[in-house]
Amino acid sequence: MPPSMTSTRMPPSLFPLPPQPEAPLPTAEKESAKKIKSIATTLNIAHRALYLGWHRDTPSTSHCPLEQRHRNSRILRHLDRTKQPPRRPSATMSSATGLPEPPPSQDRERDSDQNELEPLLGRPGDAQQPPGQFIAKNLVLGTGIIAQFGAVIFVAMIWAAVLTKDVILFSGHPLAQSLAIFTLTQSILSLQPTHTPDQKRVGQRVHAILNLLAFLFLVTGITIIEYNKFRQGPGSHFHSVHGYLGVIVSVILLLQYIIGFTMWATPKLYGGEDKAKSIWKYHRWSGYVVLVLLLVTVATAVDTPFNENVLKLKLWAVIITALMILVGIVPRVQKQKLGILSQT
């Protein structure tokens, strides 16, 4: 018989199967034995396929016995079925949490949102009101607690200096003005961290109410000083830096109130809500400037005769409390609300 017609001898198993144990195995060992048997079977099939691979590629396969050819075909078909196609990477890779990563456009939007919430000093979100948080917590959020300490000490210092002396009509002027500055500080702190539409809506209402209250305090203080000057005669006005600054700041503050209230209540005066919003940043800028001017005006009151003869407030104490208020407010200023955009 020609060599090509002789039956092909099957190669011995390269990986012999483990013998059957006489005693029953525990469940864990039984599972391990099954895995070992499965791996050995697969490796033996692969070994036989490599040994008989020439039957597929050479013409002599037509001279092999029919039974052997069928056996080889079954082995090769089994290997073809067990081959796993290479996995293509998905369009969006899963993150460590199992959630798909956002597309680059969403990453850019998220970075933009973070930049919009970036305070003047600090990282994005440091001066941001968390969702669902009561607005009163904005008063002590971040560096706001420093401003609160400064404002409380500021008011307590002035009130203690006034109430420990003989109270006269003029005593109402520093009392009312100190309350006005304290209330304005609260109105700024309450609105600064808002960033969602709902938060801004609530913050604007609180801001407006506190500003109205501060306005009443300021009007009370100005009325008292003007009445006192009227009693003293026409020549009693404008004898100090404090007097000049008081008049200038009062005019600026009145314009600030009018513009701020009309932008919020009647945006049609500015051509619609969108156009009114476009000038909000100028309202914010002027608001911070007015706060600084008010604190400077209080500091100049130290040189007035009433303070030198009656209250005896110290300039260093006024400056320290004023700086505490500014140190608590300025770092929380959100850049985009002032038109300052971060470069990314």
TrEMBL record:
It comes from the Eukaryota. Its main location: membrane. Residues 13-24 have a biased composition (Pro residues). The chain crosses the membrane at residues 139-161, 206-225, 245-264, 285-302, 314-333. Residues 1-12 have a biased composition (Low complexity). Pfam families: Cytochrom_B561. It is found in: Membrane. Its cofactor is heme b. Keywords: Electron transport, Heme, Iron, Membrane, Metal-binding, Transmembrane, Transmembrane helix, Transport. This is Cytochrome b561 domain-containing protein. It is a multi-pass membrane protein. Residues 1-33, 57-129 are annotated as: Disordered. SMART domains: B561. It comes from Colletotrichum destructivum. Residues 139-339 form the Cytochrome b561 domain. One of its GO terms (molecular function) is metal ion binding. One of its GO terms (cellular component) is membrane.
